[in-house]
Design a protein that fits this description.
Shape: extended
CATH topology of one domain: 434 Repressor (Amino-terminal Domain)
CATH architecture of one domain: Orthogonal Bundle
Strand content: under 5%
Largest sheet: none
Number of helices: 6
Order of helices and strands: HHHHHH
Oligomer: single chain
CATH class of one domain: Mainly Alpha
């Protein structure tokens, strides 16, 4: 019998699926926003047409949201829809201890050095 290798996942399924860090964060925020909109719709008792009108989009576009077509919705568009639905959007930003980031001083020094080399 073959042994299964189990790997503990992160808090972001998109990163676990192999998306780069930036795209996985964007996808996570979009999916969370889409879930909030679907839950709002389910609790509203509205028809798709009425909900779409409330959100400022067409009914076919709203149907795409309900089907989870994440690739066709920008985070900006989703934030606008959530706001139209009467919800408030928040964003929490905190450092990830395992990620090394260049300091602004190093970047500025590098840019200055590059300009000097071009001159």
């Amino acid at each position: 019998m073959t042994e299964l290798k189990i790997t503990k996942g992160s808090a972001n399924v998109f990163e676990d699926l192999g998306f780069d860090v930036q795209e996985s964060q964007n996808l996570l925020l979009r999916s969370q926003t889409m879930i909030a909109l679907v839950q709002w719709f389910d609790a509203s008792g509205m028809t798709q047409a009425t909900a779409a009108k409330t959100l400022g989009i067409t009914q076919p576009r709203f149907n795409q949201l309900l089907k989870g077509k994440i690739e066709i919705f920008s985070l900006d568009a989703l934030v606008n829809m959530v706001t139209s639905a009467g919800m408030r959007v928040g964003l929490s930003i905190r450092p990830i201890t395992s990620v090394k980031v260049r300091s602004a001083t190093t970047h500025k020094t590098t840019q200055t050095a590059k300009r000097r080399l071009r001159a």
